[in-house]
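worker-03 picked up job from queue 'complexes'. Input manifest follows; two sequence lines, order preserved.
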Amino acid sequence: MQRNDALRPVPAPEPGAVDTKRPNPSRLPMTTRWLRGLAFNRIGAVYVWLGIVVVFSIWVPSTFPTLSTVKQVFNANALTALAALAITIPLAARVFDLSFAYTMTLSGVITAHFLGVGVPLVPAVLLGLGAGVLIGVINAVVVVVMRIDSFIGTLATGSLIQALITMATGGTAIISTRLQGGFAKIGQTNVSGFTLPVAYVLVVAIAMWFLLEHTATGRRLYATGFNSDAAKLAGVRVDRLRFMSLVVSGSLAGAAGLVLASTIGSGDPSAGTSYLLPAFAAAFLGATQLKHGRFNAFGTLIAVLLLGTGTTGLGLANAPQWAADMFVGAVLIASLAVTGIQRRSVTGSPGRLRSLLQRFRAVAG
Amino acid sequence: MSPSTPARSRMCRTAVVLAASALLAVLVAACGSSSNSPGTASAANAANTSSASNSNSGVAAAQQVVAQAMQRPSTVSVTTPVGKPVPSGKKIVFISCGIAVCDLQGKIVAKATSLLGWSTSTIATTGTPTSVLAAYDTAVRQGANAIVTTAALRAEIASKLPALQAKGIVISNCCTTDPVAAPFIYNTSTPAQAAVGGKILAAEVVADSKGKANALYVNLPAYSILSSLGSTFASSYKQYCSSCGYASIDVAITQLATAPNLIVSYLRSHPSVNYVVLSVANALDNGLPAALSAAGLSNVKIVGQGGGPTDYQYVASGQELALLPFDYYTVDYQMVDALARHFAGVPVQMTAPPEWLMTKANVPSNISTEFPVVTGYQSQFLKLWGK
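worker-03 finished. Artifact:
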């Protein structure tokens, strides 16, 4: 089967292949589409988020409902958002990248090292970013070429990266007065109370949204993630997409690591590790939002803001130390339960494979 | 069944209702518990405005403590020479805790023991209880004469103690709350010794503010060794300045990544706080100066105990006011010194680690790595050992 033929839009679905009871969303009136878009099962986290905002506004009225809180939530969670966005594309293709947190550390350490020994800012930053790209390629080779499951494969590469970092740094953070100059501006520049990482997050999210929602590559990524066998049958180059998704992940993680190093002012040999679980939590929670079980950029941002608003509010309310963990746990369990329902509804039962193929053809073209 | 069927919608709604209920439960529980929260602890404002003279004398006393603490120690706390030949040929095992700084300690211990003509092997652990227990088994199999380690608790290795004692293996330890008892022969940086740091930090805050401080103490309850630091900070702080504000918050070990945000939240809800005191600086302040700056809280000063190169850089650049760096070098040599005395058959001296208050005014020139507070520590120990 020629790939182009396979991905050509299907003009008329075979009878019974597509759920004819379900109206085509694009043909619905605008008002109906908006109402559907605002449905609780599409943006439930937004409603929960609004509820949290209301609760904290009543609970701590003097400090929570202020512009300062908005700035704090955005600034404090920008790095988590960058980290979560880094893994959104591979997750869309159903590939785990557990090494991204170590890649963040590595790029920060490499940049700090080269800055410290006198390399100018731009080349040092490029070297740090290059490390991220390289790790992405290595991950892709391990997962796609060597056919090692991405979960364990990237766990292994992450472990190797951490070993390399410790070997090179001796476990000691790399500092230099040169990290306080132009490099610090990358993460610490403040514009009207918002730090630059917030802007990076917006840029990355918009680019990712465009890629996933408005290009054939995005649709093929989702097709790969939902059912790689079916996607292959439809002519999607699954391996190439997975390969590239890991390279993108490594690159974005490298960039996030640079911003992190700039923010803390050193090349800390364990700086990225703490972002591992929050980023996955945000990505999975984000998949419950907006796109019916698909990992997507703005859903990820909603999740980061939901979790960040909750933890910030609990901090402002001087809640006990266990409250934040319990809050995150409760949000995740409930939201992932919704994701399961949504994902099952999209992937459907085995008997719907034929219908699924039709959909792939329709969306991937 | 399509996703828009009533049954599926009901399932979604049920899940969402469950989520909302769980969240509400969290918020209610957290709200209910907040009576124990630090906000209420700001007894600060119940200032005892006793008398200006008392306040001034407290500030003066604090300034005196600070002036003394800023003098970098030039001698180690062990003072009595061993006085007998230290036998050579001993085999020492260093059990590493699994984090980077323990690897550094392994190297320091290896250097110290080599100066005594001993050999050292390092057993790396991942920090998990099982890996630590396995390390003790390995040490026994390797024929160790002694073990050097950090923060080992008797209860955690109780199952291995009979084997160690049967082989006559002794343990030189640091930074634990346990009293010294066989097979442990030494412990330094004990809770009582750590308390000294609390007094110095309290003095620094009161002296720097000239008696106008409102301090937030950030505690890590996971480390019980820190409890005396916190309690001494609180009592000394009130002693130096009864009218100064004080509160504390606990940060769970799982919240370290978000500690700067937690601290910023607290400071925003308590805008009169002007000092943050960190029980473990390197665990709590990664990115804290930037977070304070972004939140418009740059006037808040940071002091802390411990630290690493990143924190030292914060002090050097003025982003943090003061730190009490931990002297891994001297402490490790103290642990080896205890073994030297044990094998030489003389009493072990229970000694404290050196305390030094590092500020921008006295920060060393090379802070890119951990450094010894007592610069001449090695030659002093060699002299004590008769080498």
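worker-03 released lock.
Chain B touches chain A through 73 residues (CB under 8 Å).
The first strand of chain B starts at residue 91 and ends at 95.
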